[in-house]
Amino acid sequence: MAAPKVAVVGAGVIGLSTALCVVETCPSCSVTVLSDQFSPNTTSDVAAGMLIPHTYPGTPIHVQKQWFKETFTYLFAISNSAEASEAGIHLVSGWQVFKSAPKEELPFWSDVVLGFRPMSEAELQKFPQYQFGQAFTTMKCDCPQYLLWLEKRLKATGVQMYSRKVSDLWELHSEYDIVVNCAGIGAHQLVGDKKLFPVRGQVLKVYAPWVKNFIRDGDGLTYIYPGIHRVTLGGTREKESWSLSPDPGTAKDIFDRCCSLEPSLQEAQDIKVKVGLRPSRQCVRLQREVLSQGELKLPVVHNYGHGAGGFSVHRGTAKEAAHLVGQCIAALRGSSSGAKL
Ligand code: FAD
Fold it and tell me: Model confidence over 250-280: pLDDT tens digits?
């Protein structure tokens, strides 16, 4: 069989990192990224890009931990290299604070992030409304910068990228041997997945360069995540809302909640409001499927449904998707040698 042609649908963090893993694990493949939107117009561009996992109820914890660990290790290596600033990757330390002690004192990811420990009394004095807290250091991606870095790496390895809306995966069967579906919330329409639903998130991106530590309310709703250029203030989680229009009342509420955690944010400037739809599911869909029409077949690998945690696990799930692509290639090679016999 000639070099297998692989199409990756989607150019968010999942599509780009999956394309990169496919190139790395199968250098003989010809990989093309097809997407109706590229950075800066994807959900991935809106994300805060913090590596704090979201829990997928339908996926075993050891699997989620492995995805997170692989992603953390990958980004940690970038943060320790000369690529760090171009890739928009850096370490950030800070606090997760709770009004009452959390059910889980040691989250499953506590030994993956660096220096996880309970906050000291002196640290807690900064947050008079909170009783308990955890301090740790994790990774943060400046999302648009990281996406551009991934695109640049892909182009350097010869990956083609085309602007194209795919209406049906089957339309790709005559051009490609394998299709990888990384369409995020777009998979709702593209493959009719009724288990996939949007969780709308609104955030503010502000200029406040004096804020250096992250602060996160343990309920996950209010957070302050400093990046290289801007600080992300969040947020909202609105299940089943498809609206991409910023809501001014919500923006004020987010700002007020964040100022009550970090009063110096009152001086923040250049406030921009962003909205994204988290592609949510009980579990990430990481799966092989074979589409067929009559005698014709098209192997597909799905990798979507990362909800609130796509950045936190992207490299781990991309590696798994690339492994599934490898299985598809082996199956195609098997059937083509069988056909010759
Ligand atoms: P997307 O970025 O939406 O990419 C999907 C791609 O598919 C796009 O390029 C789209 O154009 C393309 N596409 C869709 N349909 C089609 C089609 N039919 N044909 C062609 N192309 C198509 N995660 C974290 O880990 N940490 C965080 O701090 C964090 N903060 C967040 C804050 C907010 C406000 C939001 C909204 C999300 C946050 N997330 C965070 C979650 C994270 O953003 C998502 O899990 C992640 O971006 C999903 O990536 P994706 O590539 O699957 O989707």
Answer: 999 999 999 999 999 999 999 999 999 999 9
Please state at what angle helix 13-25 crosses helix 310-340, rounded to 10 degrees: 40
DSSP 241-289: ----S--HHHHHHHHHHHHHH-GGGGG-EEEEEEEEEEEE-SS-EEEEE
Enclosing domain of residue 50: 5-335
Q: Are 272 and 205 in contact (CB under 8 A)?
A: yes
Q: How confident is the model at residue 340 (pLDDT cuts 50, 70, 90)?
A: very low
Task: Identify whether 231 is part of a domain.
Answer: yes
Kindly calculate the radius of gyration of the chain based on its CA atoms and give it in whole angstroms: 21
Quick one: how far is CA 312 from the chain centroid?
A: 6
| Domain-located, residue 340 | no
Q: Which structure tokens are listed for 22? A: 């496919």
Instruction: Determine phi and psi for 200, rounding to 5 degrees.
Output: -70, 135
Per DSSP, what are the bridge partners of residue 276?
Answer: 201
Q: Tell me if 210 is assigned to some domain.
A: yes
Q: Flag whether the pTM goes above 0.85.
A: yes
Q: How is residue 13 written in tokens?
A: 């963090």
Q: Which residues line ligand 1 (CB under 6 A)?
A: 9-15, 34-37, 42-44, 46-50, 165-166, 182-186, 190, 201, 203, 235, 276, 278-279, 304, 306-312
